[in-house]
Amino acid sequence: MKILYGVQATGNGHIARSRTLAKALEKYPQIQIQWLFSGRPRENLFGMEPFGDFWWRRGMTFVHRKGKLKSLATLRQLRLLQVGKEITELPVTDFDFIISDYEPITAWAAKIRKIPSIGIGHQYAFLHSIPMPRFNWLFHTILRSFAPTQRSLGLHWHHFGNPILPPIVPPRREPDTEVGEHILVYLPFEDPLPMLEALSKVDRQFIVYGIADTLAAADNIQLKAPSTVGFQRDLASARAVICNSGFELLAETLALGKPILSRPLAYQFEQEANAKALDQLQLAKVVKRIDADSITAWLDTLPTPQRIQWPNVAEAIAQWIADGCKQHPAELARSLWCQVTPAPSEEPTPAYGKIR
Prior knowledge:
The protein is of the alpha/beta class. It is 33% helix and 15% strand. The protein contains twelve helices and 14 strands. The protein has helices at 12-25, 71-76, 80-89, 104-113, 137-145, 192-200, 228-236, 247-256, 269-281, 292-300, 313-322, 329-337, and strands at residues 2-8, 32-38, 55-57, 64-65, 68-69, 97-101, 117-121, 151-154, 183-186, 206-209, 221-223, 240-243, 260-262, 285-286. The strands form three sheets. The chain has a six-stranded parallel beta sheet with strand order 3-2-1-6-7-8, sandwiched between helices. A six-stranded parallel beta sheet has the order 11-10-9-12-13-14, with helices on both faces. Strands 4-5 form a two-stranded antiparallel sheet. α1 packs across α11 (313-322) and α3 packs across α4 (104-113). It comes from Microbulbifer spongiae. This is Glycosyltransferase. InterPro entries: MJ1255-like (IPR005262). Pfam families: Glyco_trans_1_3.
């Protein structure tokens, strides 16, 4: 079974999820996977050893400045002619089917050549009725058409009464790490200088990822370069986490039972929707600004969140793929949510909109 697996590399969450799934798929020698990544310069990728001799394409991504998505700047840098060339030249006919983690080159190449395709990722949960902002038709259209597939497995922190799977998080085999006093900060979309100034005014120790580690920082702030192992270690030992509203990091943080302060990237559909879900499910404190006042107010009333134990979703999906993707996604979802503790409420939570 030959599979071309495309991954949107704009954010680290897609890569982290795929890294976990890659290890689960290694158990099935009958599956041959060619990985493809797009949306980030190849030289900026790190921790890519699990993907072997992966392919890279420029693909498409978004432009952000000072914590906001810049729609016009995003449109200007798309280079649609190059994207079209990458799609038409991709040799998808060499594979039995295509899997896309919201990666547009593989998804569109499969659609044009009529190759069977499956979407696996958080964005495919938005094809169901889940919490989401009331953005205009353009955002809805982009969401549906960015990386379309014939079938999909959406991932979310709650099923919302739909055939959505729990998140894919790395299984933890080592004993629980002793919790330290530092607050882990991952705010790659924020303007770094005002953010560092805000942290310097708070009487806590912070470890900051996601910005240049060469910037000057106060004594209570430690800047660290990107590192898969180092980040996981600092996350596990953190007292709490401050982050944007990206899906994968939040899923891992909820699995560790850490208090969360989150600010969505403004005007970015997925993060705005994630923030609504966090607030609705009471999983984190969501704010519009990350500054000294919002951080201090949150730390002064730091809650003790309930740790969510997700099942091994990666292993279940790998088995599903190895069996030829025959089981209906609704059955797969039910079997996995039965293993989540604490069990999610069965009542579908009122959604803010839906895409069909």
